[in-house]
């Protein structure tokens, strides 16, 4: 097991290029198995969640050709096993996308109950609602979810809540269902749109992705395609916040500025300077930032996956801020770690009241989940002392070459074995 060791106090300066969107890639890889012809997917992020899903796809019989770290060719025509269950697939939340994909393709699928980060209840009731509306029967036992249908038939579905997972999963199954499906109160996140665009590139008939209503006319089969995944808005947002928090000056390249509007707006409210270009955003801050209030909401609102990062920034901002988490109820666990560094944060229900402090001290920290782990690294970058962040396997689920990209921006950060005192001492001697 490894950890990050960080000596902060230096502004991040330079340019960083954003990888493909993990959340889009997971849905797109699942969709790829629905086609019985080769599908080439480019701009894949090289992160552990993607490698786990690719291995699972390979394990059920699909041909997976890894062209390079960011490109793969998949042929689902050789799939013979429609039960996906291994110790690794249980660790990622997006394993459930294989349910919709294999249900659409085979009308029968079994997938291990999904895992992922422990950030709160993420029920699959809306997934079940979507599948049942299309004519499937669901059985959950022995930590497996089984879905089966004699025939999938298009239907009119109104989701009780806007759910990214349920929107993508139902869309996958409905693509190969008979007739027309209308999905209302759907998620509008960019990665939902990207999955729909990918399916359309294979011959699906999906309209309305990115709006409140998605209309799908089922097709008999899908054909081969080549597709490039959109940039990762959460990775981009993380570097934007890190630049502002460290009083740095960073050009974040290979992103879609439209996707970043909620994040950019909050940074501007704190006093950071944000400059937009066609496919890049520059963030810089010269002085201590100001307080603001943040509430997480479905897209186009402020993303829940950016809440830990903005909370960390506000922990060092001037004045009192309030961050309200409206998506996941357990997403403030990381504030206990920030408290070890001297942050003054009081959690009341689904809100955190933050009294900004001038500086954070170094501490030994543990990542409770993917995005909180990235936030703790940002905190370490802001402290003038040495900090250690362990359980970085969470971070590596969603950030490609995290420490390398930070090093290129001037950060003093290294990945070393946990409790390796010799390597820790070498790091401390090097950074002074």
From TrEMBL:
GO terms for molecular function: UDP-N-acetylglucosamine 1-carboxyvinyltransferase activity. It is found in: Cytoplasm. One of its GO terms (biological process) is cell division. The keyword Amino-acid biosynthesis does not apply. Keywords: Cell cycle, Cell division, Cell shape, Cell wall biogenesis/degradation, Cytoplasm, Peptidoglycan synthesis, Pyruvate, Transferase. Phosphoenolpyruvate binds at residues 22-23. Pathway: Cell wall biogenesis; peptidoglycan biosynthesis. Residues 7-406 form the Enolpyruvate transferase domain. UDP-N-acetyl-alpha-D-glucosamine binds at residues 93, 122-126, 305, 327. Belongs to the EPSP synthase family. MurA subfamily. This is UDP-N-acetylglucosamine 1-carboxyvinyltransferase. It comes from Catonella morbi ATCC 51271. The lineage of its organism: Bacteria, Bacillati, Bacillota, Clostridia, Lachnospirales. The gene is murA.
